[in-house]
Amino acid sequence: MKLTKSEQEVMETLWLAGRPLPRSEIIDLSPKRSWSASTIHILLNSLLEKGAIKEAGFVKRNKTYGRLYAPEISSEDYYSSTIFSDQKAIPMYFSALLRSDALTADMVTELEEMLEQRKKELEHDS
Questions:
Q1: Sign of the Cα pseudo-torsion (100, 105, 106, 112, in order)
Q2: What is the rounded CA–CA span in Å between residue 8 and residue 52?
Q3: What is residue 60's predicted lDDT score, i.e. its pLDDT?
Q4: CA distance 115 to 53
Q5: How far is CA 65 from CA 19, 28, 39, in A?
Q6: Which stretches in the chain have pLDDT values below 70?
Q7: What is the model's pLDDT at position 49?
Q8: Rounded Cα distance, 104 and 22, in Å
Q9: For position 23, what pLDDT does the model report?
Q10: What value, to the nearest 5°, has the Cα angle with vertex 75 and ends 123 and 119?
Q11: Cβ count near 120 (within 10 Å)
């Protein structure tokens, strides 16, 4: 799934909120947005069409009801799909991660455990 910068900003707002949000709250919680408030309807419709979000009920505001929107995909799943969309790039990204000065011995141990678990899952599936 490919999202525009504006769509990613809406998704980040939904992910950070951790709960379904109405249109107005998405606007209010996105003060540093690159999109204008008047385009929120277009962005939400686009995200619905892409399957990135879903309608999650309604909320009453004054005398009217507004739709609530929630993510259909987690931030982890979205970003991993964008990073790993090219299978040949996976070793490159992993190599860059391993060279990072931010990587600690504890993180390496945790990564080793995750890789070992995934290896067992793949061996079991084949």
A1: positive
A2: 10
A3: 83
A4: 30
A5: 18, 18, 20
A6: none
A7: 96
A8: 40
A9: 92
A10: 10
A11: 10
